[in-house]
Amino acid sequence: MRGRPVLGAFSGFFFGLFLSLALFQWQIWPLDAASVYGLPVVFLVVGIVGGLWAPLGRGKARAATETAGATGSAMAGNAGAAEEATSVEDDDGGEDDDGGGGDGDGDGDGGDGGGGDGD
C-alpha cells in the first residue's frame, strides 16, 4: 500500500465538515442534510483517493541507494561530522557570552543591576 489513506480520510472528512460549516456561516450554502452529511463524505472519499495516490514517503530508488551505500565506517564518519557541526566552540576561552560582566544580565556592568546611590 502506498501513501497514507487513513490520514487522507481523516483530513478529507474534517475538511468537508468545516467547509460545510463555513459555507453556512458565510451564508453561501444552507445548513441542510446535503451539506452536513454530503460534503464530509465526499471529501472523505477524495481524501482516501488522494492519500492512496500521493507520493508521500521515501521513494524506492532513494531508499535503495541509501541502504546500499551506507557502511559502518561511512556512518561513523557522518556521525562525527554531525557532532562537529552541533558542538560549536567559543572563541573567547570558555567565558560566558553575556557581553562581559559577571551578573548574567548582559549589560556588561558586572554589578547587581541596581542603580543610584540609594537616595
Structural description of this entry:
This protein is mainly alpha-helical. It has helices spanning 5-25, 33-53, 60-69, 72-86. Helix 1 packs antiparallel against helix 2 (33-53). The longest helix is centred in the first third of the chain and has 21 residues, at 5-25.
Offer a concise description of the structure.
The protein has 119 residues and is mainly alpha-helical.
The value of Rg in angstroms is 29 Å
Largest sheet: none
Provide the β-strand percentage band: under 5%
- Mean pLDDT across the residues is 73
Unreliable residue runs: none
Number of beta strands: 0
Helix and strand content put the structural class at mainly alpha
> End-to-end span in angstroms?
78 Å
Number of helices: 4
Query: What is the 3D form?
Result: flat
The helix content, as a percent range, equals 55-70%
Order of helices and strands: HHHH
Secondary-structure blueprint:
Blueprint: H1 5-25, H2 33-53, H3 60-69, H4 72-86
Helix pairs in contact: 1-2
Distinctive features:
119 residues
